[in-house]
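In response to the reviewer comment on reproducibility (Comment 2.3), we provide here a single inverse folding case reported in full, input and output, so that an independent group could reproduce the run without further information from us. The structure tokens appear first.
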């Protein structure tokens, strides 16, 4: 019997892309969620098995026991793949226990969590001379004076723990334009018991956002990599990718590989950079330590990261690879991109002509796949129902 792939979190297109990336190779995929609601990823023809587990946060111990009990019933240890930051955190917390029953990389416990926390990540980056945006702790002496002189307005109030912040405020940051807004944002975070930092905005439109997507093997060596350039995000300017193209940028390898190998990282990781429009320097913004939003793009251009991980963990690693040319292929999450386009046009950051031209490019869709249409149809029905509820209100 082969090793199954256990995929955590399938109510978003990341989980769906992982199911497809492995399923096309005939791997038995197991979708685990805490609820059946909106889990359109499980409707894929490549999903072999669906299970409902206790809630990873509300019933943490029961969730871990559920995973362990499932693995004990298998003839071969399964590969465990988290598709959301919260699942990464709990795997990291129970790493030693889960490694007895699942195939997981031999990474230092706590490193995933440290890399996801903006405060500790920026400290690590500075150790390796990687540029990060100028930031201040909200407990800094003379904070307001330092913001006026060092950071300047507008600036952002950014969480150190993004998943908790997004869950509370349904946004990634607070953008503030003056002292009153700054103090209000800090107070909101304090009331929610969330740690935040004040950070300078690196100049440049959303197409100055780049990514270095890489896989590091068990020896912490970058063996597979590709670089991409964002074009549009939602919410605009400080959101998630909705339209992103593969773009070969060798400088990102020079910065990213040295840093990731230096901290002993293993597995898939994505570094988000922003290129300063005034200086041309690349600033590290954050790390994603689970499969990325535009995994369907990476798969389409020949970089199947979930399968790369699976092959290494099951003892048959793929030969090293990198995409060192432009494929002119773009990831597209149409639903949120149309919402983003409306705001880009409203704020005159894009013209209608620029938007229309972009829609004719070669695409990798977030959800739709002609060979596997059911998840897309289920998603469309879900959105239709939500729209009807709004109209009735």
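Designed residues, in position order:
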């Amino acid at each position: 019997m082969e090793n199954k792939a256990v995929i955590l979190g399938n109510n978003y297109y990341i989980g769906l892309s992982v199911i497809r990336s492995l399923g096309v190779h005939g791997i038995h995929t197991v979708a685990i969620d805490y609820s059946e609601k909106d889990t359109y990823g499980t409707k894929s023809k490549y999903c072999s098995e669906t299970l409902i587990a206790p809630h990873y946060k509300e019933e943490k111990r029961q969730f871990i026991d559920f995973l362990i009990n499932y693995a004990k019933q298998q003839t071969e240890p399964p590969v465990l793949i988290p598709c959301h930051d919260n699942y990464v955190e709990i795997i990291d917390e129970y790493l030693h226990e889960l490694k007895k029953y699942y195939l997981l990389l031999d990474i230092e416990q706590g490193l995933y969590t440290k890399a996801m926390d903006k405060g500790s990540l920026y400290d690590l980056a500075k150790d390796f001379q990687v540029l990060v945006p100028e930031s201040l702790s909200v407990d800094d002496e003379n904070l307001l004076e330092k913001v006026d002189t060092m950071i300047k307005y507008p600036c952002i109030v950014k969480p150190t723990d993004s998943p908790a912040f997004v869950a509370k405020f349904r946004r990634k940051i607070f953008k503030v334009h003056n002292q009153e807004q700054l103090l209000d944002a800090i107070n909101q975070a304090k009331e929610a018991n969330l740690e935040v930092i004040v950070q300078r905005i690196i100049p440049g439109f959303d197409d100055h956002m780049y990514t270095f997507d890489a896989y590091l093997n068990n020896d912490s060596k970058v063996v597979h990599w590709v670089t991409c350039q964002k074009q549009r995000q939602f919410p605009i300017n400080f959101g998630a990718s909705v339209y992103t193209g593969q773009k070969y940028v060798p400088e990102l390898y020079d910065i990213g590989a040295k840093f990731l190998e230096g901290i002993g990282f293993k597995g898939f990781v994505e570094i988000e950079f922003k290129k300063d429009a005034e200086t041309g320097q690349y600033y590290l913004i954050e790390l994603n330590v689970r499969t990325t939003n535009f995994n369907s793009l990476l798969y389409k251009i020949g970089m199947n990261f979930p399968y790369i991980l699976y092959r290494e963990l099951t003892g048959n690693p793929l030969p090293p690879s990198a995409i060192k040319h432009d494929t002119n292929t773009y990831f597209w999450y149409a639903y949120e991109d149309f919402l983003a386009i409306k705001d880009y046009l409203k704020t005159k950051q894009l013209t209608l002509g620029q938007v229309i031209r972009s829609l004719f490019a070669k695409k990798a869709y977030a959800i739709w796949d002609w060979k596997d249409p059911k998840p897309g149809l289920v998603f469309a029905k879900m959105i239709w129902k939500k729209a009807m509820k709004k109209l009735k209100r």
